[in-house]
């Protein structure tokens, strides 16, 4: 029998991703996060919490769905053992320690995974991988761990939007300016019929154009433009509108990480009056895609009517004025044309709808904020910023293809949030490690280049300055 003396460190390739993560990511903060969840003067010594969290991260880094399979992989994979600090003969912790003692008991009902995510974002900022000036937001759906055919139908209350009070105040001010009486306020919760899963009642039945129908969750994600680091993760049921949690999540990131946000990019689903008004209040320039929206085919859209703010009128394509009539309770101003003008108009076939003898154009009291976002998005700078929105699409693609985020592993909002947060942590630590290692390699190579005799002489030769400058830039 042949015996050899080797170290586990020598068997792990120098370019392995876990080596880079171990070099550039500091996991020592985990001890401080969980110290209040452990008993220090009773029972047996607990497993190092860093090992528990790092084992979970191994599963998300390499797409291992089962925690029992993670344990089996650690037993035979030397790189995994090295990453966790195990030796050749050390006993690996049991899968029940990860599942029962930690997730189901110790970590249940806490925000540990949110704090871990936040700390990794802060480490990315220390490595100067986040600018905090341009953020992109979008959402992706995760298929819930539930049968779409097993459900009950119930009447549920549709929650009143948070911005309703602000909108009511703006409507009353607008009506007062036009010498109209205030509207009556009646914001009783609306009852709607919806499907509730009997398997995972916290998921939502999603019905969207171009999307599959069924029970899903939504991962609302925000990334930074500089290196595509994920800075925000928030999970909702699949039937929640993308717009609802957006501004609150943006505020949380600005407050938590002290971002100086200048621009925010999003797709057309976020192009609403509320979002654009929120950008203006926060002095942030929105860059959002747009579409015409619902209208009668072959007829003029409302955007074919020019609004003149100074006169508070809309001008139709035939250059006729439409006068203000009223402001509705939901914030829409009505601008109505003169029937006599419409009957004698040569464009009435493309303008009048149905049997109406006049055209009504609705314009929201916050429409000006929407116009401003639309105008900037169409500028050259706006187009450049919006084009880079594909970075968040790439982030979602990586999370689904490489890290198993296409389906929910567990049931319940808190457990799906855990999955989304740890997936984002895995993507972030991988990005931090790879970019930091490239930077380090560049510095080493540049140092060797500058100290090579021939190039050192070339560098300081005045007649060859341009050539040496070109070498350095490359």
From TrEMBL:
Pfam annotation, one family: DDE_Tnp_1_6
InterPro entries the record matches: IS1182_transpos (IPR047629), Tnp_DDE_dom (IPR025668), Transposase_InsH_N (IPR008490)
Transposase InsH N-terminal domain span: 7-103
Residues in Transposase DDE domain copies: 315-432
Name this polypeptide is given: IS5/IS1182 family transposase
Organism: Clostridium thermosuccinogenes
Taxonomic lineage of the native organism: Bacteria, Bacillati, Bacillota, Clostridia, Eubacteriales
């Amino acid at each position: 029998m042949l015996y050899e003396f080797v170290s586990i460190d020598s068997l792990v390739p120098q370019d392995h991703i876990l080596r880079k993560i171990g070099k550039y990511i500091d996991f020592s903060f985990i001890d401080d996060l969980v110290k209040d969840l452990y008993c220090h003067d009773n029972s047996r010594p607990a497993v190092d919490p860093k090992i528990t969290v790092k084992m979970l991260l191994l599963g998300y880094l390499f797409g291992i769905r089962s925690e029992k399979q993670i344990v089996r992989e650690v037993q035979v994979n030397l790189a995994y053992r090295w990453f966790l600090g195990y030796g050749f003969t050390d006993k690996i912790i049991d899968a029940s320690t990860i599942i029962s003692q930690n997730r189901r008991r110790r970590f249940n009902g806490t925000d540990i995974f949110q704090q871990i995510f936040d700390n990794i974002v802060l480490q990315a900022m220390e490595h100067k991988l986040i600018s905090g000036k341009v953020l992109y937001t979008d959402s992706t759906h995760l298929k819930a761990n539930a049968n779409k055919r097993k459900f009950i139908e119930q009447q549920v209350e549709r929650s009143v939007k948070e911005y309703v009070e602000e909108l009511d105040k703006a409507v009353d001010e607008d009506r007062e300016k036009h010498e109209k009486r205030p509207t009556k306020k009646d914001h009783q919760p609306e009852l709607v019929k919806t499907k509730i899963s009997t398997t995972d009642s916290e998921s939502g039945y999603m019905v969207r154009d171009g999307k599959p129908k069924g029970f899903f969750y939504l991962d609302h994600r925000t990334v930074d433009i500089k290196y595509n680091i994920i800075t925000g993760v928030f999970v909702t049921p699949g039937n929640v509108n993308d717009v609802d949690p957006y501004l609150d999540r943006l505020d949380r990131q600005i407050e938590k990480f002290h971002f100086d946000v200048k621009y925010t990019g999003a797709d057309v689903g976020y192009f609403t009056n509320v979002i654009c008004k929120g950008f203006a209040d926060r002095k942030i320039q929105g860059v959002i895609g747009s579409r015409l929206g619902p209208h009668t085919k072959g007829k003029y859209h409302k955007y074919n009517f020019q609004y003149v703010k100074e006169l508070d009128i809309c001008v139709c394509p035939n250059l006729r004025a439409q006068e203000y009539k009223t402001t509705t309770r939901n914030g829409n101003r009505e601008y109505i044309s003169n029937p006599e003008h419409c009957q004698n108009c040569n464009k009435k076939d493309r303008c009048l709808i149905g049997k109406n003898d006049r055209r009504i154009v609705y314009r929201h009291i916050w429409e000006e904020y929407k116009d401003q976002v639309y105008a900037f998005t169409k500028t050259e700078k706006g187009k450049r910023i919006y084009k880079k929105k594909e970075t968040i699409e790439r982030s979602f693609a990586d999370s689904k293809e490489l890290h198993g985020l296409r389906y929910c592993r567990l049931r319940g909002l808190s457990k799906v949030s855990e999955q989304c947060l740890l997936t984002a942590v895995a993507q972030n630590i991988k990005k931090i490690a790879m970019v930091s290692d490239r930077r380090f390699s560049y510095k080493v190579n540049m140092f060797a280049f500058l100290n090579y005799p021939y190039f050192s002489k070339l560098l300081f030769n005045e007649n060859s300055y341009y050539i040496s400058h070109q070498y350095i830039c490359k």
